[in-house]
Write a sequence for this structure.
């Protein structure tokens, strides 16, 4: 069995982590898609804490029996991801998100809200996602849609940033003290950029 791919979850928010499931997005020759099937989407959702391992197993078995539904859900997930990336990329550059992307995120979030219900837990109440209905395979999309809408309407929108590494362009939340974080991950992009600068100085 092939080793499970480990998704990079350094975006700081679920919607940004979803947007970052493509590496080297701007380089057609080196671009790497990390979501190629509904199964990959399940792996991402489980690693991101959207669903439990048990739920992932149940959805995997359900998807195996309903291949056409799984393909449709996967297609919707990719459409959502691309709208999320475009919207927050615009925000990170001080531009407004496009009306089309906002509408897609709105529609997806409103659809998700139809599948939330209040449940009593430990003497209190909380929102929970339903695990029933004919569109069960969409279950993993709902928290992602909600996360995108929540971020767009939160104070954290002001700290959405682009990674400055030229071959990255991933998105992240800059929680640094003086809002000066430049890379999505210091141990990868940050170190590569430092090594590149050192090499350029040594050649000069």
């Amino acid at each position: 069995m092939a080793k499970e791919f480990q998704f990079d979850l350094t975006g700081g928010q679920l919607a940004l982590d979803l947007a970052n499931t493509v590496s080297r997005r701007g380089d057609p020759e080196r671009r790497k898609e990390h979501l190629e099937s509904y199964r990959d989407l399940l792996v991402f959702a489980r690693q991101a804490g959207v669903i439990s391992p048990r739920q992932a197993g149940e959805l995997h078995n359900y998807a195996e029996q309903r291949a056409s539904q799984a393909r449709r859900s996967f297609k919707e997930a990719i459409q959502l991801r691309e709208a999320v990336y475009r919207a927050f990329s615009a925000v990170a550059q001080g531009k407004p998100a496009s009306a089309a992307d906002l509408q897609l995120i709105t529609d997806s979030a409103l659809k998700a809200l139809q599948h939330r219900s209040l449940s009593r837990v430990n003497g209190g109440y909380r929102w929970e996602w339903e695990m029933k209905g004919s569109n069960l395979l969409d279950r993993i999309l709902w928290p992602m849609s909600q996360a995108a809408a929540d971020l767009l309407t939160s104070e954290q929108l002001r700290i959405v940033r682009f990674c400055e590494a030229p071959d990255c362009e991933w998105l992240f939340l800059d929680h640094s003290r003086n809002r000066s974080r430049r890379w999505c991950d210091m141990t990868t992009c940050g170190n590569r950029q430092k090594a590149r600068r050192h090499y350029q100085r040594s050649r000069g």
Notes: The chain has one domain: 14-203. Residues 193-200 have pLDDT under 50 and may be disordered.
